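Supplementary Methods, section 5.1.

A reviewer requested that the exact input to the structure prediction be made available. We therefore reproduce it here, unchanged from the version used in the analyses.
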Amino acid sequence: MNLSMKGIVKSFGANDVLKAVDFHLNEGEICALLGENGAGKSTLMNILGGVLPADRGTIELDGTPVAFANPAQSLGAGIAFIHQELNLINDLPVYENMFIGREIKKKSGFLDHAAMYQQTKALFEQMELDIDPGAMVSSLDASFKQIVEIARALMMNASIIIMDEPTTSLTDPEIERVFDMLRTLKAQKVGVVFISHKLREVMEICDRYTVLRDGVMVADGYVKDTTIADIARDMVGHEVRTGGKAGGAKLGEEVLRLEGLTQEPHFRDVHLSVRAGEVVGVTGLLGDGRSELFRTVFGAQGRYQGQIYMHGKPVMVASTQQALALGIGYVPRNRKENGIIKDMNILENGTIVTLPKLTRRGLIDRKRQHEQFDVQRRELRIKMERETDGITSLSGGNQQKVVLAKWLSARPSLLILDNPTQGVDVGAKEEIYEIILRLAAQGVAVIVLCSEAQEIIRLCDRALVMYHGSVRSEVSGETMNEHEMMRLATGG
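The structure derived from this sequence is encoded token-by-token as follows.
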């Protein structure tokens, strides 16, 4: 099925979100839809998915004009929308998830489990998927959950599948598994709209790309004819630096030292030293133990063997409160689950770490709270309307800045960042990089945990590569390259 969207216009009050946007998708093609948060990608796809009406413009499927008043009409026309937050029920088996909302029933009115199981099995065999239809969804890893969502769309006869950030929470092997599924879809003439901030993935899996900026389509073409640097420039409107960190940083005293830190089965015999003003990366693959290691340093992982030193003095970190008192800050890897509190507003999220210092006799000093957050808002350039708006009203990049703000207000001497730019766009990623480098220049010791080699190269003075809970080696300078880090991370 060929899709053509022409001159799509959408406004919300005085805010013009889409300004005569064109978008095309050919049969059996994977087309990346790219842009910063707020560029209009979601609005455009919500119009295609029947969630929102367009103010002006036309949609054609195989040359026939169509209009969708609701998602059911869009799905009925062969368009499936797989959102970043997967719509699967963990407590049901796979085959029941495949038929949610359109269950097969017997004449008696009871569910026909056998028929749903067999139809699911037949589809999986057709797609060459090694998934047990009777397995509980909760037992699947993230990539297979994503694949079940894709298979469900195919069972509903989808000819076009919209995928919103499908690899955000996946490991490299899981991403490759999903990409294999996308290649199968392509061979079967299914078109895919691939929304992502990961430009390397776009270069690997997509045929074409379309870039939106401020509601305008600013670039499109074939992936083979462009580069990551070109696409990044189109997205943000200016050149984006992709090289490594400039050398010559002035380093101060040793802030953190680990000697033989061990917590089986997660990690063992880890030795590490980080100095003031230094950015040290820790990388590897899923199961390498780096998150557990630094959760331990932050007092959130339980008992350990070995010794932690802060500023040259031995310490026993038994709780997060103790870590905070020692000057340790920690930004967790999953912002939505562990970084923000969804039921709190922006101000509350941005000051929660230092709230005890802002409280007197059980009452919060609101004036100091506002003043403290306002300093961080200006320094981090957080884009927002009102402090009292919900934290989820912000883009991913601005949410991450609020998470940073709550820790920077505590003025840590050591800041641990676990996957600091997960799910943020190219422009916000660059801003977060600059914040991290500025903190290092101010004398903060920074540890960056990340699986993306390019992020490690961009930010870090040196990096440790972990493999199955042990530090495999240290890389720096010429050895801090993608090939060498992957070789070490896979046990080479």
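Residues 254-489 form a domain with the Rossmann fold fold (CATH 3.40.50.300). These observations are discussed further in the main text.
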